[in-house]
Amino acid sequence: NAGVTQTPKFRILKIGQSMTLQCTQDMNHNYMYWYRQDPGMGLKLIYYSVGAGITDKGEVPNGYNVSRSTTEDFPLRLELAAPSQTSVYFCASNRSPQETQYFGPGTRLLVL
Amino acid sequence: KNEVEQSPQNLTAQEGEFITINCSYSVGISALHWLQQHPGGGIVSLFMLSSGKKKHGRLIATINIQEKHSSLHITASHPRDSAVYICAVLRVSNYQLIWGAGTKLIIKP
């Protein structure tokens, strides 16, 4: 099993550009999550999904969109990149909220 | 006030020392997680606790539900234990994780 994979590993964006961060898991987990981690801060939940076709906002959803068309994939879309979105983004998944979350390696995003 | 507080924020110790990292929380929880974030950025789950104590190798995690407090201990610390240790609690009201800011641990040889 590859676990949770994320692409790209690193990206530089100009202000106003858009991009999609990809996340795929091969563990057949229903629950998937997107977090951002700013330097010296704890993880903050952006969006989560409880299954294909079902998504919901987390703590900091503004400026982001998600979709969940399959169990495996949970892409995160940035439509109009802003410097405040410079961060490290982690995708995670688990079978249920009460179980351990498995994390991807992260995507480092720099918006200039 | 943050719902999950960790202390200390930073900790530097010599190889072999006994390490304690603390986590206090202010919400009702169904479980508490301890995770490790390596210098390269990867995040790995160490423990999930809802009561009592768990041990894995040199790592021990305890939780006191009444006092809303958990500790992570490392015995015979080693430079490879250098990492950020993160506490996260699963809020019972909506089953979402609330994350502490992490404790940066450096073990010197």
Runs of chain A in which pLDDT lies below 50 for 5 or more consecutive residues are none
> Which stretches of chain B of 5+ consecutive residues score pLDDT under 50?
none
| Percentage of residues in helical conformation of chain B | under 10%
Number of helices of chain A: 0
- What is the terminal separation of chain A in angstroms? 36 Å
Helix content of chain A: under 10%
Quaternary status of these chains? heterodimer
Number of helices of chain B: 0
For the largest beta-sheet of chain A, the strand count, sense and barrel status come to: 7 strands, mixed
Computed structural class of chain A: mainly beta
| String of helices and strands of chain B | EEEEEEEEEEE
Strand content of chain B: over 45%
How widely separated are the two ends of chain B?
A: 36 Å
Find the count of extended strands of chain B (DSSP E, 2+ residues): 11
Q: Which terms summarize this structure?
A:
A: 112 residues, mainly beta, seven-stranded mixed beta sheet, globular, B: 109 residues, six-stranded mixed beta sheet, 0% helix
Characterise this structure.
The complex is a heterodimer of chains A (112) and B (109). Chain A is mainly beta and 112 residues long. Helices cover 0% and strands 49% of the residues of chain A. Chain A has no helices and eleven strands. In chain A, strands 2, 4, 5, 6, 9, 10 and 11 form a seven-stranded mixed beta sheet that branches. In chain A, strands 1-3-8-7 form a four-stranded antiparallel beta sheet, with no helix packed on it. Chain A is globular and about 35 Å long. The termini of chain A are far apart. The model of chain A has no long low-confidence stretch (mean pLDDT 94). Chain B has strands at residues 4-7, 10-14, 19-25, 29-37, 43-49, 52-56, 59-64, 69-74, 83-91, 97-99, 103-108. Chain B is globular, with a radius of gyration of 13 Å. The model of chain B has no long low-confidence stretch (mean pLDDT 93). By secondary structure, chain B is mainly β. Chain B is 0% helix and 61% strand. Chain B is built from no helices and eleven strands. In chain B, strand 4 and strand 5 (43-49) form a beta hairpin. In chain B, strands 2, 4, 5, 9, 10 and 11 form a six-stranded mixed beta sheet that branches. In chain B, strands 1-3-8-7-6 form a five-stranded antiparallel beta sheet, with no helix packed on it. The interface between A and B is medium-sized, with 21 and 20 residues.
